[in-house]
Amino acid sequence: MYQPAITGTGVFTPTESISNDELVVAFNAYADKCNAENAAAIEAGEMAAMEHSSSEFIFKASGIERRYVMDKTGILDPDVMHPSLRQRGDDEPGIMAEMAVDACNKALAQAGISAGDIDLVICAASNLERAYPAVAIEVQNLLGTGGFAFDMNVACSSATFGIQAASDMVRAGSVKRAIVVNPEICSGHLEWRDRDCHFIFGDVCTAVVIEREADARGAIFTILSTRCATQFSNNIRNNNGFLRRSRPSGVVDRRDMQFMQNGRKVFKEVVPMVSAHILAHMADEGISPDRIKRLWLHQANKSMNDFIGKKVLGRVPQTEEQPNILQDYANTSSAGSIITFSKHSSDLQDGDIGVICSFGAGYSVGSVLVQRA
After folding, report:
1. CA atoms of 39 and 47, how far apart (whole Å)
2. 3 state SS for 81-148
3. Please, are residues 122 and 180 in contact by the beta-carbon 8 Å criterion?
4. Domains along the sequence of the chain with CATH
């Protein structure tokens, strides 16, 4: 058996971003247009008028101030309201693969190894560009890694589930080095025309190198333990799968083909589930809350994270103990906890212990206990 460790991380951040103010202008223009087109039905009481959004509403509901996206032009066009991404030819790299290669190269550089040293690529993300061939195999080809590659999807928990799969294989000796990459184009499955959720998501890609601790060439985070759990729920859902073209005749625009969630139920049910999961994981490994120096949580909603942090530590966490990147990146699904880990881990000292945790649709929750070494 070998001891797995995280030896490098990388983050690809799109060049385009959208502030809350920009987003509100576009949404309100769409709402006005929709209300004007349906004035008669609204007057007759057959449908409700769309409400305006506001930057104050968005920040209070989520803690988000801006988000990065792969295309802002289509999103901010009231006649489009979704990213306009060019269809790639079959002989061109896919957009997710391009994002992944950037993040992977940064992670490899931090680990001090080359792509040829990697013998496993896992592409773990909420929404993959296609059903097959696997995006991971395309990334493997573009990077020039050996071994094998595969895709996996556990929604917002994909990164931590991928880390568990990779670290288990490193521990067992079936691979020496792995890279888990999380390309998330969340803007493509968000319903930008829905006031309750039009502000939630952003785009990004993260990557994590996992290898045998004995082979590490610099500062590392030993993976002490991993734990994953799932429990079925329809409270977060996206029906836009590869069978979409088989939808009933005459149905043109089904709302449930994009991101949907029952926010109140999600908050009420997920917060205790995640808190209990982390605490049980720590207890089983003999780690008391006072030994936790850092919580790198899924970046979905600031209030959720505040509640989870308080429950896990038994007190209100200090800012540095539970860092947030939500205000700048918004919810980036599986990548959120890894962005936070990548940007807020280098200051820890040898022996310090932290928890990487992600959670989301499924319900799913994954936690990774790590120690600076």
Report:
1. 9
2. CCCCCCCCCCCCCCHHHHHHHHHHHHHHHHHCCCHHHCCEEEEECCCCCCCCCCHHHHHHHHHCCCCE
3. yes
4. 222-372 (3.40.47.10)
Q: Provide the residue type at 292 as one letter.
A: I
* 242 membership: H or E segment, kind and range: none
pLDDT number for residue 209: 98
Written as six digits, the tokens of 340 are 């936070």
Residue 261 sits at φ, ψ, to 5 deg, of: -155, 150
CB atoms within 10 A of CB 80: 15
Structure tokens at 146: 């050996």
Q: What does pLDDT average to over the chain?
A: 94
Q: In what order do the strands lie in the sheet with 292-297?
A: 148-152, 120-124, 177-185, 203-212, 4-12, 221-230, 364-372, 353-360, 292-297
Catalytic site residue 156?
A: yes
Instruction: For tokens 């980036």, name the residue.
Output: 332
> If you search the block for the tokens 């880390």, which residue do you land on?
163
Measured CA to CA, the distance from residue 208 to residue 231 in angstroms comes to 26
Kindly name the residue from 123, 156, 186, 197 that is annotated as catalytic.
156
Predicted pLDDT at 265: 84
Asked whether the beta carbons of 303 and 267 are under 8 A apart, the reply is yes
pTM of the model: 0.93
Largest CA distance in the chain: 72
Asked if pLDDT for residue 350 goes beyond 70, the answer is: yes
305-340 pLDDT, tens digit per residue, is 999 999 999 999 999 999 999 999 999 999 999 999
Q: How far is CA 219 from the centre of its chain?
A: 25
Phi and psi torsions of 55, nearest 5°:
-60, -35
